[in-house]
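Need Isocitrate lyase/phosphoenolpyruvate mutase family protein's 3D structure for a figure. Predict it.
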Amino acid sequence: MTAFAALHREGDPLLLPCAWDHASALALAGRGFAAVGTTSLGVAAAHGLPDGASATRGETLRLARVLGAEAFPLSVDAEDGFSDDPDAVGEFARELAAAGAVGINLEDGGGLADRHAAKIAAVRSAAPGLFVNARTDTYWSGDRDAAETTRRLEAYREAGADGLFVPGLTDPARIASLAARFDVPLNILYTPAGPTLAHLADLGVRRVSLGSLLYRRALGAALDAATGIRAGRAPDGPTPTYDEVRDPAG
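Structure prediction for Isocitrate lyase/phosphoenolpyruvate mutase family protein:
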């Protein structure tokens, strides 16, 4: 078991905050988070590109090369692998591993399960040390078909996935059922209206991702500060100093 895999503990799940650039990643690592992920929405939006459209392969790899040199474990959100060709996805995973990433998140986007399983198998072959978190979008898309979700997760596990991710799933009973069914960690996306981190731990979840939440909250805070200043109000909440941003290591 790799050190990153060992962070996925029953009763004490890995809380994975997701960064969108070097500054956000180092700031999160500086707060003591055991690992840092990336958010495909944040990376795409920061570059003026659409998310989920295979448009940010280059930007994602460049960020991984910057962050992979840091001391914290890095897991990269790679959308669907940026290709329909499993071999191309495997090659991208190999490049991520060479950059220093320890994990990859691959989403099926609601597409063909067999094709996604083939991508997982290709990644497993091309970058055997990379922790493959296989995501199904059955709940994220609003389909919420429990049987189809289970079928997909079983196929992805059989293809070699190290973890299984079901964003959009918030029902405690269903979460507990899936966590107990599989021998690899279940990953759930945290939502403010869903179960708390402690509740998810009790349900057997071993990884909780923050996805694009921090990026969207950062944008919200910036907008709130700007409009507040325009209205004559001083911004509230914490503001890192110039030196803290410039040199997060102190």
